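TOKENISE THE FOLD
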Amino acid sequence: MKAIGVIPARLAATRLPNKPLLDIAGKPMIQWVWERSSDARMLDEVLVATPDPEIVSACQSFGAVAVLTSPDHATGTDRVAEVVSAREADIAVNIQGDEPLTHPEALDALVEGLIEQQDAALGSLMFPLGPDDDAADPNLVKVVVDRFGFALYFSRAEIPYPRNPSDVQRYGHMGIYAWRRERLLEFTAMPRAGTEVSESLEQLRALDAGWKICMVRTEHRPVGVDTPGDLERARRALGA
């Protein structure tokens, strides 16, 4: 079974322009993501998908394969689907291009989880929330799973709602997805779901269609770079 990783990346970012090419410890951010993802033993190939020739040139300079995609895609998922439609692969992992601290072990666990759960159309990652986490923060996406590890719902709201005292473990969602190839291509052709529009969470389109999403627990937390402050934290973590 062939699994590939695809990193969607673009220069147009409102809060942090030219984000993929910003320097972190002597390397552009996209290089950190590609190198760390390439260490995942379950991925046969890791590609970058971008509408920007500047990113293609940067990737070529450090040996990565970058595919120039349409500038008209609304989401990174659409960009990944364009790349996958022209390649032979059973599983495609959509890797966030703004997480230079991507953990290859988490990518491996995700691919293994999807292979094991044959009923799942796709898989994703979740991490346990602790008492210091603000579960009501809308920027922290939460997921509730059933006893078999399949997602019941994702929300920016606090779920499950703590109406009564409970020791239930709450989970945050990490936006990395492993897709079965045919389901990814089907997904990008589907209309958006009402819940997806309301929450601005595209994975709800899959749940609305009745698809199963297997959730794989990881102790690694996402370290995304969206602001100048995030960039400085990433630089400190990577030795800049």
